[in-house]
Amino acid sequence: MRKTPDQSIYDAIYKISMQLGYATFNYLPDGKAPYPFVYVGETFNTSRRTKFNRYGDYVVRVHVYSNEPERNRKTVTEMRNAIENAFYGLKRTDGYQVLNHNTTGQIMDDNSTGTPLLHGVLSCEATLN
What we know:
By secondary structure, the protein is α+β, with helices and mostly antiparallel strands. The protein has 2 helices and 6 strands.
């Protein structure tokens, strides 16, 4: 059975993070996870179906967390940029053609664990056909 387009692009981005050597999760891990790590999180889609094909616009949100001393932004920025660069090289995944790559990102403070963290977010947007 063929994967859905949103699952296909999600898996491709997860694989990119793993191939870059990052500790990568498909869930937000507990406090025992080693920092820095990547959480491949939310997906959003706007699907369209034609008589012969299904295609649409897909967004996968990637989170990078770091607890580096003094919350060093460099680690988060480098990890986020490496994932972004590899994403732009993605042309096909599971039989789908990947078109119109776009990304948006931000880095913010995160105090959700009681430990000061830096939280980078990368939204990877693409059209699959």
